[in-house]
Design brief:
The protein has helices at about 1-5, 20-35, 45-55, 105-110, 130-135, 180-209, and strands spanning about 10-15, 40, 65, 75-80, 95-100, 115-125, 125, 140-145, 150-155, 165. It is of the alpha/beta class. The protein has a 7-stranded mixed β-sheet with strand order 1-2-10-9-8-5-6. It has a 3-stranded mixed β-sheet with strand order 3-4-7, with helices on one face.
Length: about 210
């Protein structure tokens, strides 16, 4: 894992369903978090980030999404209560555009440069609100909320150079001519971190010489 990731300028964990490759994605998130590599998690990517943080920072080794492990004792990712009795798969999904309010002291607000946004969704599982306070107390902050339901849409780690996870799909609104603000901010963070690493290399070379 280290050999594959240590030279990367950024790590993006993309959307998906089910348990395929999930533990590898969680390890990738952990590497990005622990090595200060810019990270962007989209939908499942956000959920992997929350699971990783719960396991390795909160000390909940069995934390999981109930999609992957329905019997987990710590379902940090779960269906909303009003979805659990539905059997029609389409009825259990949150689809379409929803508003999101951003906290001003966040990377996401800096990217959008506005307090209220609207983004498209396509998912069944949400961050379990029962764990939000514990996550925040441990350093992972909820910075984006749906104003109607109070569901968390965006999580960040302020102490990290750039660590952002979003429940929605920014790729749905991104084009070549008008790239999504989060993608632009993510790439800028990757470039900035690369400059820092290059500067460190030059300093080491100067010392060696």
């Amino acid at each position: 894992m280290k050999k594959r990731l240590e030279k990367l300028d950024g790590i993006l964990v993309a959307p998906g369903f089910g348990d395929r490759g999930i533990e590898g994605k969680i390890k990738g998130v952990q590497y990005a978090r622990e090595h200060n590599i810019p990270f962007l998690g989209i939908c499942l990517g956000l959920q992997c980030a929350v699971v990783e943080y719960a396991r390795n920072v909160l000390g909940l080794p069995h934390a999981a999404s109930s999609e992957v492990n329905p019997n987990t004792i710590d379902p940090v990712i779960d269906k909303m209560e009003d979805q659990k009795d539905l059997t029609n798969l389409g009825g259990t999904m949150r689809l379409g555009a929803y508003e999101c309010k951003l906290k001003k002291d966040s990377k996401s607000y800096s990217a959008y440069e506005k307090k209220k946004i609207s983004e498209r969704h396509r998912h069944r599982y949400e961050i379990n609100s029962n764990y939000i306070k514990s996550l925040e107390d441990a350093g992972m902050k909820a910075v984006g909320f749906n104003p109607a339901t109070e569901l968390v849409e965006i999580m960040e780690i302020p102490s990290h150079p750039w660590f952002v996870g979003v429940q929605f799909h920014p790729e749905y609104k991104s084009t070549v001519e008008t790239p999504h603000p989060l993608f632009v901010a993510f790439i800028e963070a990757c470039i900035e971190e690369r400059k820092k690493q290059t500067s460190k290399t030059y300093k080491l070379l100067e010392i060696a010489n």
